[in-house]
Design a protein that fits this description.
Elements (H helix, E strand, L loop, with lengths): L1 E9 L2 E7 L4 E5 L6 H10 L17 E8 L6 H6 L7 E8 L5 E5 L2 E3 L1 H8 L3 E4 L10 H12 L2 H47 L4 H15 L1 H16 L5 H12 L7 H30 L4 H20 L5 H67 L6 E13 L2 E10 L7 E2 H4 L2 H16 L6 E5 L7 H14 L4 E5 L3 H4 L4 E10 L2 E8 L2 H13 L5 H16 L1
Parallel strand pairs: 3-13, 3-14, 8-12, 12-13
Antiparallel strand pairs: 1-2, 1-4, 4-5, 5-6, 6-7, 9-10, 10-11, 14-15
């Protein structure tokens, strides 16, 4: 239940600090006093969006804080789901700064609005006048039936599984479209891959061909120069090796005279050995260089092919071309495996569909079981609200296939007149009839769901007299099992409250302010009397108000 509400700097509210009790709390006040403003502030801690327009003082932040008692509510799993600290007295807090930035907290832990809303929906339900329009909406009707049947958790599980099934189906459609496009590209990928694969791309080979081809192109020049160099070293009339040998013979006799001469001889011997090795290498290289036009043509054709492929695939190196070949191969393999993947996913989709149908059938069975009881109970409540000839029916028929609500089609039907044929609510119900019908439905499901608090915002609009008394009786009955907060303008309801909050407007420094206070005894009698007879109630009105309140307290 909601135990405490703090509002600061919201619309016409400077500061509001109230405590609330179990049972029925009534909130009254003149039109325009700010009852709807109070409800708007409360909606902020239930996850509704807001902007800087709600700030009374534009240079200060707005704060709305609600304290909820979670006793006997099984919410620990929900708190653990979002890693929230669980306390029996849990505080919901919203802050809106002058820049329009909003922050939300649950027990001082920052949360986003979706989380705040999800948790708050398990704590409180606000029923306002405009909500009567929901009664004609399919989603609301399913929620009512499922709440009465006690299968809201089952429906939550079903809807999650249904969304996953839909998501899988869309994924398969996407893959099938991808496969269709890929099949048209498969021949192209295969041609490109086979061309590259046939080329036997090898980065090391390309560099080797370039070197060998360079030699073959200049084979005659290379061979001639190598032979000339070898001839100069060893075979010319005056050649290098002969000259070195003569020099060596001249230095050998001197080697024994001192160390310097010996070192010169050793150096000359070393040069001569190196020249001999160099000469041998020149001769060998000369012998290996062969003028081979056929081989040159073969290599040129090979390197032309590789260069063509480089240009075709916009590759800057053989390594990049090799990577391009591998990419084509992977695309081919992916297309070949895509069909197998799709077949596996289709089997999974069919299995999920069968599971969903089983779940949907169990849900449908439970709905069918409770519909007669619901029809009887709502019709009975309508009679209590002064509609003895009213009939309420729930039309149910199987749906071809499934949707997020299962495999049923539901439609609430209503007739306000005796003997009338129940028809769709939107076509036959007036505003007052809708209001009473919604109250009947809320009364019915409030006894069966786990919501600890329900707020009625002028549910009594458009009714008076005996019907107003009956509405008060129903609100009082609901309040025996849960906290009920009723914003009302009817004395019959205002007199029933276990506590009574008065919303009023003051003028401070030329500006309107909304305030609220808890009234008792004489103040309360006076407020109910004003609701009976205007700003200056007569003694008769005061006596009537006193009697209404006294009878309530006595009961």
């Amino acid at each position: 239940m909601l135990k405490h509400l703090l509002v600061e700097n919201y619309a016409l509210i400077e500061k509001l600090d109230i405590s609330l009790t179990q049972g029925l709390t009534v909130i009254t006040g003149e039109t325009g006093a700010g009852k709807s403003i109070l409800l708007g502030a409360m909606a902020l801690i239930l996850g509704q969006r807001a902007d800087t327009q709600v700030l009374m003082h534009k240079d200060r932040k707005c704060i709305v804080e609600g304290t909820f008692d979670l006793e006997n509510l099984d919410l620990r799993d929900l708190f653990e789901k979002y890693q929230l600290d669980y306390d029996q007295l849990t505080i919901f807090r919203r802050e809106i700064n002058p820049q329009g930035k909003s922050r939300a907290f649950i027990n001082d832990t920052p949360v986003n609005l979706a989380v705040m809303k999800e948790v708050a929906e398990r704590l409180i339900d606000i029923h306002s006048q405009h909500q009567t329009l929901l009664i004609g909406e399919s989603s609301f009707q399913f929620d009512v039936v499922d709440s009465f049947a006690g299968i809201l958790e089952d429906m939550s599980v079903f809807r999650l599984a249904f969304r996953e099934w839909q998501k899988l189906g869309k994924n398969i459609e996407s893959l099938e479209e991808q496969e269709k496009r890929s099949r048209t590209e498969l021949d192209y990928f295969r041609f490109q891959f086979e061309e590259l694969d046939k080329a036997r791309i090898n980065p090391a080979e390309y560099r080797q061909i370039e070197g060998e081809l360079e030699i073959l192109r200049h084979a005659e020049e290379i061979k001639l120069n190598l032979e000339k160099a070898s001839f100069i070293l060893s075979n010319a009339d005056i050649n290098v090796l002969k000259g070195l040998n003569e020099g060596l013979q001249l230095l050998r006799p001197l080697a024994g005279y001192n160390e310097k001469f010996r070192q010169l001889m050793v150096r000359l011997e070393s040069v001569m050995i190196e020249i001999k090795d160099l000469n041998a290498d020149l001769e060998r290289e000369a012998e290996e260089v062969i003028h081979d036009p056929a081989r040159a043509t073969e290599l040129q054709q090979r390197i032309d092919l590789l260069n063509k492929l480089l240009l075709k695939h916009n590759a800057s190196s053989m390594e990049e071309l090799e990577s391009t070949r591998d990419d084509y191969q992977q695309k081919i393999l992916a297309i070949d495996s895509l069909e197998e993947e799709i077949n596996q996913l289709r089997k999974e989709l069919d299995s999920k569909r069968q599971d969903l149908f089983i779940q949907a059938e169990k849900i449908s069975k439970r709905r069918r079981q409770v519909i007669p009881e619901m029809e009887k109970e709502v019709t009975g409540l309508l009679r209590q609200l002064g509609m003895p000839g009213a009939t309420f029916k729930i039309a149910s028929q199987p749906l071809e296939g499934m949707n997020a609500n299962g495999s049923d089609l539901l439609n609430f039907l209503f007739s306000a007149n005796p003997g009338g044929t129940p028809s769709e609510i939107a076509r036959v119900a007036s505003g007052g009839e809708l209001s009473r019908l919604m109250l009947s439905i809320k009364s019915m499901i409030s006894q069966r769901n786990l919501l600890p608090t329900i707020i009625f915002d002028e549910i009594d609009s458009g009714i008076s007299g005996e019907t107003a008394t009956r509405v008060a009786n129903i609100l009082e009955t609901i309040a025996r099992n849960m906290q009920v907060i009723a914003i009302t303008h009817l004395p019959q309801i205002a007199s029933r409250g276990r506590s009574h909050l008065l919303v009023y407007k003051t003028i401070e420094q030329g500006k309107a302010r909304t305030a609220i206070k808890n009234i008792h005894n004489g103040d309360r009698i006076l407020e109910v009397a004003k609701m009976l007879g205007g700003e200056k109630p007569t003694e008769v009105m005061l006596a009537t108000a006193r009697e209404l309140i006294f009878n309530t307290q006595k009961n």
